[in-house]
Amino acid sequence: xxxxxxxxxxxREPIKRDxxxxxxxxxxxxxxxxGGKRMxxxxxxxIGDKKGKVGMGLRKGVDVAESVNxxxxxxxxxxxxxxxxxxxxxxxIKLKYKSSRIILLxxxxxTGIIAGGALRSVLDLAGxxxxxxxxxxxxNKVNNVKAVFEAFKKMKTADQLRQARK
Length: 166
Known about the structure:
This protein has helices spanning 2-5, 64-77, 118-126, 141-154, 158-165; strands at residues 20-33, 36-48, 53-61, 79-81, 93-97, 100-106, 113-114, 131-137.
């Protein structure tokens, strides 16, 4: 009787994830304790829906899989909306975060994502189709990703830009 009430697994559709994820960096880190060195892994993960919603997570774990899972959960809690106009950003922005400096410029359709390293992952998962960018200063992936997120937070929508011009 109990078997009749159970759903058959073959009829269910596979669970679709809302967000795509990209592991930007995995680093082995150590901590010195009385018995020697304790090794852990630090994962930097960016998730996004390619429609303007993007998040990042940076977490540590005993093994790589654990640290990536923790980082994905942290990224889901740290989501922001990116204002997009026709697949690009609404205006130019220059930003300094710690020793990393980035420049983001809107681009014409067909340009693509002109970005290097960690910036490309974030911009792609955010849904930006056309953009010009430049990383200056530090090549630290964590600081460059955080700099892009700070730039996205400071970005104004088209309506806010019109209000500012009046």
